[in-house]
């Protein structure tokens, strides 16, 4: 395996997870910021890979060709250009960015700010949310996929929260609401005024209201899962913590599923999922999921108001990025799944 973008927050988590997985071997790491230095100088990894030399971005294709799969932890526009080159060299790709999550090429200028350079790959990419197979159009799942689009962090939490409800026809899919709150590591290592300590500490603010790139991703996944046209209003907020995100989703019950049976939908849907826990909504907290690969969900239906509320929490860098990428990678190559410790 190789990791491109290893100097980023998600890339560093990936390096640790790949290095610690007994069935995976890390053969190359790439990032300009750390080029020429050893991986172990920056990330706490086992001695076997600590001596790996970090290659510059200009060497990304050559380095990635040494491994069977490349993990891209790069900005969407970078991944969109790099993935086709890697695929052309026979290297399979798990991409952590949004570059291959949306099936409609016309959505890219609107939500990501660039024209997609490889629109033909959008239909092929597998949307890799392992616990919600219906969110992808690919019948075979990640196994045998050449290209896996790893879901966004808020999108993972929101889709886990709403998929069992739309799949069962339990809610009105035309009006779902999602309030999301994320720790600052969600924004990556970049320098930005809104991410300064003085802006974030002891503060809470909404951002990109009506304009967040995970809106079409959530709608696409729920439309597929429910075979309906899903419409989601999503508002993200920046929380003054390092790790973790929590979304609260609200929807109107359709009456098709009695309110007393709504929680059972979740328990059934996620019974086979080792990494998704269903608890009371009040027990869904950042502290329970931060630094773990778990997502935790809580649901409560309100018969009097005809509504349902779902809380959903995960670590944005793990289930929201790197550990989910590992789940996908293991499924692609038939390696044992990520240990759920
Ligand atoms: N942070 C999170 O919680 C999540 C992130 N993601 C996605 O994962 C990917 C990586 O995110 P994250 O680790 O947070 O990001 P960071 O900003 O922390 O890291 C970005 C990485 O990409 C590299 N890079 C290569 N080319 C460029 C370029 N042109 N501009 C900027 N960086 C470049 C950087 O290398 P260098 O600085 O050495 O040049 C760095 O290694 C992104 O697509 C992000 O959207 C997805 C889910 C959650
Ligand atoms: C706090 C914060 O800024 N979070 C990021 C989430 C990053 C993510 O999951 O991003 P991609 O879809 O770009 O891969 C954001 O809201 O854009």
UniProtKB/TrEMBL annotation:
Active site: 153
A single BP term in Gene Ontology: L-arginine biosynthetic process
Cell compartments where the protein resides: Cytoplasm
GO MF term list: N-acetyl-gamma-glutamyl-phosphate reductase activity; NAD binding; NADP+ binding
Segments forming a coiled coil: none
Main location: cytoplasm
CC terms in the record's Gene Ontology section: cytoplasm
Assigned keywords, A-Z: Amino-acid biosynthesis, Arginine biosynthesis, Cytoplasm, NADP, Oxidoreductase
Catalytic reaction list: N-acetyl-L-glutamate 5-semialdehyde + phosphate + NADP(+) = N-acetyl-L-glutamyl 5-phosphate + NADPH + H(+)
Semialdehyde dehydrogenase NAD-binding domain residues: 2-140
Pathway: Amino-acid biosynthesis; L-arginine biosynthesis; N(2)-acetyl-L-ornithine from L-glutamate: step 3/4
EC number: 1.2.1.38
UniProt family annotation: Belongs to the NAGSA dehydrogenase family. Type 1 subfamily.
NCBIfam families in the record: argC
Role noted for this protein: Catalyzes the NADPH-dependent reduction of N-acetyl-5-glutamyl phosphate to yield N-acetyl-L-glutamate 5-semialdehyde.
Record's protein name: N-acetyl-gamma-glutamyl-phosphate reductase
Organism per entry: Polyangium spumosum
Lineage summary: Bacteria, Pseudomonadati, Myxococcota, Polyangia, Polyangiales
């Amino acid at each position: 395996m190789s990791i491109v973008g290893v100097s980023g927050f998600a890339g560093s988590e990936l390096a640790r997870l790949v290095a610690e997985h007994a069935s995976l071997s890390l053969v190359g790491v790439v990032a300009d910021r750390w080029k020429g230095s050893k991986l172990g100088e920056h990330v706490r990894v086992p001695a076997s890979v600590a001596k790996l030399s970090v290659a510059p971005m200009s060497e990304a294709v050559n380095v990635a060709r040494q491994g069977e799969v490349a993990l891209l932890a790069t900005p969407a526009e970078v991944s969109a250009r790099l993935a086709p080159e890697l695929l052309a060299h026979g290297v399979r790709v798990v991409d952590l960015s949004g570059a291959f999550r949306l099936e409609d090429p016309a959505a890219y200028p609107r939500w990501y700010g660039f024209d997609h350079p490889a629109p033909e790959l959008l239909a092929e990419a597998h949307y890799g949310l392992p616990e919600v197979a219906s969110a992808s159009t690919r019948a075979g799942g990640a196994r045998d996929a050449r290209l896996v689009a790893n879901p966004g962090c808020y999108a993972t939490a929101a889709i886990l929260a709403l998929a069992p409800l739309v799949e069962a026809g339990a809610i009105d899919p035309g009006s779902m609401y999602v309030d999301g709150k994320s720790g600052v590591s969600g924004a990556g290592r970049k320098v930005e005024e809104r991410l300064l300590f003085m802006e974030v500490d002891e503060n809470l603010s909404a951002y990109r209201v009506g304009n967040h790139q995970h809106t079409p991703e959530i709608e696409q996944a729920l439309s597929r899962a429910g075979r309906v046209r899903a419409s989601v209003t999503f508002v993200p907020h920046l929380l003054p913590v390092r790790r973790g995100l929590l979304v609260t989703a609200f929807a109107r019950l359709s009456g098709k599923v009695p309110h007393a049976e709504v929680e059972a939908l979740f328990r059934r849907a996620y019974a086979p999922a080792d990494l998704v826990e269903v608890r009371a909504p009040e027990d869904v907290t950042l502290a329970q999921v931060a630094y773990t690969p778990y997502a935790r969900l809580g649901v409560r239906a309100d018969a009097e108001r005809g509504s349902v509320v779902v809380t959903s929490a995960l670590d944005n860098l793990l289930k929201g990025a790197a550990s989910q990428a590992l789940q996908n990678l293991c499924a692609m190559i038939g390696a044992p799944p990520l240990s759920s410790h």
